[in-house]
Design a protein that fits this description.
It is a single chain. By secondary structure, this protein is mostly beta strands. It has a single domain, classed as Beta Barrel (Porin). 7% of the residues lie in helices and 68% in strands. It is built from one helix and nine strands. A hairpin with a 1-residue loop joins strand 6 and strand 7. It is elongated, with a radius of gyration of 21 Å. Keywords: Signal. It holds the Pfam family OMP_b-brl.
Length: 230
Amino acid sequence: MDKIFIRFAFSSFLLTTVSVSYAQETNHAGYYVSAKVAAVKLKADNMETSLRPGIGQFVAGDEKKNLTNASLGFGYDFGNGWRTEGEYTFKNDAEFTSGSSNFPTSFNHHKVDTQRLMLNAYRDFEVLNNVAIYGNLGLGVAHIESSGWQGNISRQYLANTDTQLVYSLGAGASYKAIPNLNLDLGYRYVDLGKAESGLNNFANARGLQDEQMKAHLYSSEFYLGARYSF
């Protein structure tokens, strides 16, 4: 969890605490559908834990990617400031690189495809007429497919899939444009868990199948969203 996220989380907590005295019912109880589009910074951490024995020191490569993702949700507003929502985030792909000091031109290329299904809880606080701030927590499942190659594309790693529990934390603001439509602007931090390829499917210098790409994925997301209630 980087310093930017810690500062954001602390600031959001203070803002929510200050605003709690203004909290009041912001919506009528009922179901809603939602959609979000997000600007994402996906970070691959812990790539130095990859298995690449006997070939020198780890050399960092491209560990961050800027992406765009989209999601759809279906939720229920309890009418008392609380909301719950099921949300599916569509598949997105990225590629990260890392190398070794003994083979500076033979980088690992770790390709990941991520998608997730989350159960989110929101707490809304109305601060102005038709304007609210909120905090949210999400728990769910991420499905991550890993594959890639080393040095040149003919030297492939076996593919692997990881399905694991993940969490998210976030905050934002919403504006009620018309009685049934809310527009959201927010940020969330998502711990997507581990991403591990299969072992090397190519012959290495030792004649062994003992190499594997590893990473831990984190997603920082600024999003625009819309909620239509019915």
